Amino acid sequence: xxxxxxxxxxxxxxxxxxxxxxxxxxxxxxxxxxxxxxxxxxxxxxxxxxxxxxxxxxxxxxxxxxxxxxxxxxxxxxxxxxxxxxxxxxxxxxxxxxxxxxxxxxxxxxxxxxxxxxxxxxxxxxxxxxxxxxxxxxxxxxxxxxxxxxxxxxxxxxxxxxxxxxxxxxxxxxxxxxxxxxxxxxxxxxxxxxxxxxxxxxxxxxxxxxxxxxxxxxxxxxxxxxxxxxxxxxxxxxxxxxxxxxxxxxxxxx
Amino acid sequence: xxxxxxxxxxxxxxxxxxxxxxxxxxxxxxxxxxxxxxxxxxxxxxxxxxxxxxxxxxxxxxxxxxxxxxxxxxxxxxxxxxxxxxxxxxxxxxxxxxxxxxxxxxxxxxxxxxxxxxxxxxxxxxxxxxxxxxxxxxxxxxxxxxxxxxxxxxxxxxxxxxxxxxxxxxxxxxxxxxxxxxxxxxxxxxxxxxxxxxxxxxxxxxxxxx
Lengths: 254, 210
Ligand code: HEM
Ligand code: SF4
Ligand code: FES
Description:
- Chain A is an alpha+beta fold.
- In chain A, about 35% of the residues lie in helices and about 10% in strands.
- Protoporphyrin IX containing FE binds near residues 19, 54, 197 and 201 of chain B.
């Protein structure tokens, strides 16, 4: 396959950045999208040019490091698939592909396609954990959990923190990520003690980081590589309403 | 957003039911409009009750617009650098047009108040004879008024299709099954209100109400 790539190049946080066009020939349809970028980078290095910086780690769709907007779609055209698991057979020979970084105030560009997603860590730091020391994994049957809750918590726990939901959201909101990280704990017995301080803390941290507000538009779910459903945000809303109604009852931190 | 929106939806339902009284004839419809001005009497003098309702509506509309503006400003601030290549939104058309749709509906409501409440822009324009006002409004030769009303009511329909679902979600609707139900409720309300509002101008247009 021969492809024309238009890639966002930005030397550093202060650089203005621009789209630069590259021609990449002899791409195998069996390559992953990132392997195709590796090919481009090898050629750029041989030619003495600066390679395109992009984030990646596991390359098997589980770590959440990779992520770029491909032809206007976060993680590219294939549903439930990270950029590293996207294969070139989903593109046509001779196609022009636009590649841009996640665009959000809370995700400043570090270089080229690499953005700083530290704001997601700040949301986690504001309550995305439990304080009870749990030791090693307990015997599964010692703490009964209703099947529906276990399934929903598991679904939320599949979030890999890639930030595609933010990149796709017309409001630049990180509510799907926040909801996944709140509900993976709030649906389980171990998550109960901090249930209400957690949701308030994490939503506050989300807003402070400069993310937009959620309007239930549903773009996030459409691009999420882990298929986190939109109703997860409803679970967060329910917890948030309960938590705000509780304010004043001396729950520490609320 | 959700709370003020729901108050406005309740108003829309009541207003639609009131409008449908036009099919019971001129005397009955005019009598209904006069009664609106006297609810609460003798406990409350004259149009007090109506003004209480109007105040609640204005507070809701202002609150609704304030919340929407805050969200729009936050959205704009949250993405300072735009995408060069942006896919048309994959979510619903209704969700995508909430902001512009809301502005169009506001302009419509202003025109509508000048038309049928104050009578300023109405060919009859006699606040004591609302039936005559409505009939004059949608006369076939004023087809453009009917067209504008139709487009606006359809805009309200789209606004509600996403708005009602979104409001239920904001108020804590949380299961996938409930989500399907909430979407059905929103669709039924949107279509029901559109039809309920549109039968009046079309009944006048086709001579069913004259
Ligand atoms: C084709 C559809 C409609 C017709 C025939 C209609 C008819 C009327 C009439 C006759 C009045 C005056 C009532 C009176 O004098 O007591 C009125 C008032 C009003 N209408 Fe409509 N209407 C329609 C659709 C709408 C829609 C879609 C909205 C909102 C988005 C709306 C909002 C209002 C408001 C806010 C008032 C003023 C209420 C008040 O007096 O405080 N109407 N309408
Ligand atoms: S919710 Fe989905 S899109 Fe958002 S960070 Fe988690 S895995 Fe990525
Ligand atoms: S590199 Fe780990 S998810 Fe793509």
